[in-house]
Amino acid sequence: MILDRLESAGYEAYIVGGCVRDSIMGFAPHDFDVTTSALPEETEQVFSSMRVIETGIKHGTVTVLTDGIPVEITTYRVDGEYHDSRRPESVSFTRSLKEDIARRDFTMNGIAYSPKRGLFDEFGGAEDIRRGVIRCIGEPERRFQEDALRIMRGLRFSASLGFGIEENTATAMLDCRALLKNISAERVFAELSGLLTGRNSDQNLRRVMSEFREIFAVIIPELKGTFDFEQRSKYHSLDVYEHSILAAESAARITKGQENQLALTLAMLLHDIGKPECFSIGEDGEGHFYGHAKISAEVADAILRRLKCSNALRERVCTIVKYHDIQMMNGDRLIRKHLAKFGEQTYCDIALAHAADDLAKRADYRGRSDVYFDLIERARQIASESCLTMRSLAVDGNALRGIVEPSPKMGEVLKYLLDGVVDGKFPNDREFLLQEAGKYIAKRRGK
Questions:
Q1: What distance in Å separates the CA atoms of residue 376 and residue 222, rounded to the nearest whole number?
Q2: What is the pTM of this model?
């Protein structure tokens, strides 16, 4: 309807960019961008009977709401000079679609389609999609100097689509990587998040992060200390960095499409980042990293604050990192204690971290990962059947009033009773717990 209206008014109009790329690849587009020869005020006139939002009018973009769906319509444009590797100083409008496409990032995103005119593909994007190649439109260095975030976009596309990166484009990415320092932390983190959770990141994450590790060291400098750091451990055949990115890829695979995919994948990328600081050699010649989980969590916290990660995600990631190597396989008693300490969600996060970690170790240790999926199932069963919190304890402060006055001591008694129930020493029975509370108070008074 939008294309027809613009065409009927005498203008050219195409859908362009990601929606065309995804359609060619057989994926359903999530949104549509339209480009047109109509100037912004002409576009507004064409859609005067509909709700129009001046999204970025000075850059030629207006948004039309059709059936509640926003569609961005942008006038063909040519960008002016870039001085900050982020945005053009000015834009000028053009009636040439080719000039508009020539300013875009990659050939696969430089394809336009009109039902009336068919595909417009002056830069070979359809062929690059067929070959599985990410290639800049025009001169790669210029594209990245214009907007350095295109470097991260290219890596995200490579991981998500499974495409390789054309040689000149890859070289320019590496040469221009320092320009990423000019980009806001929020935009960089959004691209990193997309890279970690993309459609095929569970198959391509390690390849991309290994081939372009120097780029990732620009946005997370702390990673550089893990490069080529040999672990000298019977558990590991990979250096710290390669182990971490394989663990992250494994995490992406076992959580694919789930709400915890970003948290776990990010946690595994950072879970051993403190190892170089803790390295020591034992008398047996084995490498040891005592205390590395705590230090890694502290480093991860600093990194995620710098990247403007949300507080909830940062706290979740850092908790996984801090406890990623705790003992978990020791029966129902330990499961109950961990569930009481962490809660069900965090317990499952930590168990999945163990699984992803094992999948990145020497081949003979990878089979252990299945144990953690069994632990998760058992933990969920225990969580549904057991008393693990004060809320589910058979007694509360009111029930204890005849035994102890409201005070910090009452909280101490309730904790003692809950610990006993979680530990399996006490049944979660009101009368039994009241008797135990009385014994506990009497014993404390005797002391």
A1: 32
A2: 0.88
